[in-house]
Amino acid sequence: MATPLSDSSLSPLKTIAVVGLGTMGTGITEVxxxxxxxxxxxxxxxxxxxxxxxxxxxRTAHCVERGRLTEQERxxxxxxxxxxxxxxxxxxxxxxxxxxxESYEIKHRIFxxxxxxxxxxxxxxxxxxxxxxxxxxADSARPExxxxxxxxxxxxxxxxxxxxxxxxxxxxxxxxxTDLAIELGKEPVAVxxxxxxxxxxxxxxxxNQAAAMYEARYASREDIDAAMRLGCGLxxxxxxxxxxxxxxxxxxxxxxxYAESHDxxxxxAPILKQLSEAGLTGRKSGRGFYTYEAPGSATVVPDAxxxxxxxxxxxxxxxxxxxxxxxxxxxxxxxxxxxxxGYDVVLAARSAEKAQAAKARIGKxxxxxxxxxxxxxxxxxxxLDRITPAGSYDAFAEVDLAVEAIAEDLEVKxxxxxxxxxxxxxxxxxxxxxxxxxxxxxxxxxxxxQDVIGMxxxxxxxxxxxxxxxRTVLTADDVHATVRExxxxxxKHAVDCGDRAGFIVNALLFPYLNNAxxxxxxxxASLDDIDAAMKLGGGYPMGPFELLDVxxxxxxxxxxxxxxxxxxxxxxxxAPLLEHLVAAGCLGRKTGRGFRExxxx
Length: 601
Prior knowledge:
Number of strands: 18
Strand order of the largest sheet: 3-2-1-4-5-6-7-8
Shape: elongated
Keywords: Oxidoreductase
Radius of gyration: 28 Å
InterPro entries: 3-OHacyl-CoA_DH_NAD-bd (IPR006176), 3HC_DH_C (IPR006108), 6-PGluconate_DH-like_C_sf (IPR008927), 6PGD_dom2 (IPR013328), NAD(P)-bd_dom_sf (IPR036291)
Number of helices: 22
Helix content: 40-55%
Distance between the termini: 41 Å
Largest sheet: 8 strands, mixed
Structural class: alpha/beta
Family: Belongs to the 3-hydroxyacyl-CoA dehydrogenase family.
Pathway: Lipid metabolism; butanoate metabolism
Pfam families: 3HCDH, 3HCDH_N
């Protein structure tokens, strides 16, 4: 329960004006009032001010119903809020938080008028996420009292607050606002003044690339969104998130970022301009990348781009037996997935000992499932019995599908595919699990490139639901249909994409990780603040540096080099800090040190 604080426990910022009572301003007003602040809500529109009060009444009533507030606390909270249509109402405020539209002209006008209204010691905060705090401060009569206070939407629920200092901001103002954020139950992150700050600075580059990927018809909107939800554990896919944020808002933020950085990754994808100018701004208009039941609705309805249910096109080839090549974690995980789905599996490695060790690893995995009550001992034994270890790929002679999961080395993979071409029967589907190498290069190592396809599983394969199905220009339709059908039988979500570096997930994930490294390299923010910002502000299950250390810095560097080599974009060049850490042998958790240090086991 948000318990109001007594007056004696409040920071000096007791009376706070909120200028702009849209969705964000209303949310901030609610947070402040619940935490015991006197709030003056100011909006030039009387109707908008009334709408804000009505929203507060409804939200606090809901809190009472849920047991989060008592009736008395609700009455006290509402009594602490008054509204006005004139900035003169901010005269007694200790802090003014401006959340007007993202326009320098509008914000400058507000700050100039506030200069003539508020006391000399009053702090002026802008809620911008796209415009320069320094530029706004420089135009103020008291630039040392101006800073950024960036809440995230919805403000009552989101924990992150970015406290933005310009070179002109007084440390005392930053300290006061930081203390306030803590008292509000938020987690403040201190950042410098650059468009997007930390969370949006990383988030919007990723969203922009997803929009460009869709615009290039590389993958469908549904597959792009599913790939990032299932492959990265994100709460929403990027295109659905753009619709939620507002495509016009995203375009404004990206234009501000590009004006500052001149990084092509921030240059708004043309589709964002086209949709914005057509009025297709996302949920609020009822249509953006998706179509919604009504303006403001979260319910997606079918439209002309919605895939037809059960439309699989060509019929697939029959698959009853599967060969898995490799002896590492990925190979054993894939073999376990197929065996659980009822397939007979041949698990082949370079030696019988390696194959036996891989099967033993699967046995341990199944035993853990039995211990957790997910499998019976009998079922686990049956699954393990379906797996036949082999020390030679000759054992793949009769398999219907051969899945390669060996080292991420193109020449090694090409040699394996040449071998599979000789030992596998005609009509067998040959799949590579590569995450970064060209599938077509594996296909060309065979005499039957039409039978070769990418089938990119994610680690750990038994737990991760996503498989990227990668067609080359040579892949036959029935081979593609076969793999889609197999994915359904093994209970994986298949997404289709073309044969280019990074496919969907890595092509969107690793530039984001690289940009996070650049922020640290440029001393813009700390590892901890960036990780906190992305978990609290973006809903990411792990911060970028936590994830880099888990993936392995050497693996990350290799993927970033592949992306840079393929797309030739200077913004994709691996951050020198990453290269230096890899050169020093600091590869993440597996070596005990990466971006952070880990206790040796």
